[in-house]
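Appendix C reproduces, verbatim, an entry submitted by the partner laboratory led by Prof. M.T., so that reviewers can inspect both the input and the predicted structure.
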Amino acid sequence: MDSDNLAAVLHSKGDLRLEQRPIPEPAPDEVLLRMHSVGICGSDVHYWLNGGIGDTVVKKPMVLGHESAGCVVKVGSGVTHLKPGDRVAVEPGVPQVMDDFVKSGRYNLSPNLFICGKAPNDGSICRYYTHKASFCYRLPDNVSFEEGALIEPLSVGIHACRRAGVTVGNSVLICGAGSIGLLTLLVAKAMGASQVIISDLSADRLTKAKELGADCLLAVKREDVPEELARRVEGMLGGMPHISIECTGAESSIQTAIYATLSGGVVVLVGLGAKMTTVPLLNAVVREVDIRGVSRYCNTWPLAISMVASKQVNIKPLVTHIYPLEEAMQAFETTRQGHGVKVMIRCDKSDQNP
């Protein structure tokens, strides 16, 4: 193992640097990973551009990144289920205390959660990174490192579809054809949705959605009226969708999701927008439309890996750009500009093949 631990370190708003960090030693319940592939999430770009997200502010230099996969190079003294050479996908949220949320299986809601790449915790855009072994999941031979890194956003789609109760025969509206919206599309179809309509401002993203199996495409403009968009959804589907999954956080898009959903149906809010949002709450109340939130994911990694390994979902087409770690700034700029779908950083300097 070499001494090179190049890392993408955010110092403050707009100040992202490549610099060397010491290679950490794994604790007894941790593994040391040689990172291979790390996807850039919108939250990473938000940290870079704004120096924080909401009340979470960068107060000391931190390594970014949380969509990641790598290879075990060293195990802690208490780790028995992994060994050096194992290829793993990393679940970034790790409970720190056995509280009531953890006991009930909803550890994602625990206030005592370590989250990789969320200030002040260092993330995984680096050569070497340590993580709790119990939250590293072995990848089958037919699942690539890039697919392993995509298990994290795929898990968001799985959790959203679980929260929505997607099942055989459902019609589903997905608002937003970014990476989360597209992965949610794949999951909804795999869970049996008979019709999925997806909306976006971008024609290119809608084209990608069609390639991935969307039944209907709804091109929207910023000036569109939510009630009118809801009527267009109904017309395209031949009825109102049972479920709407909102993946943008935009106020008008949330309004559209509520107006469009069939009475007695479910709206799931995945996208994060403004702290205060105006929505047609009375419309939802009188029609018994349930509005449910999503906080990351829980208990999804084994299912997500199985879905990819068994070819129930094909997530490879979402990776549109791959940059070496040395070009991390270009990777962040590509993501900021909205090019492609998922931008990956290849951290392993010994494997830079496309």
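The longest strand covers residues 30-39. Additional entries are available on request from the coordinating office.
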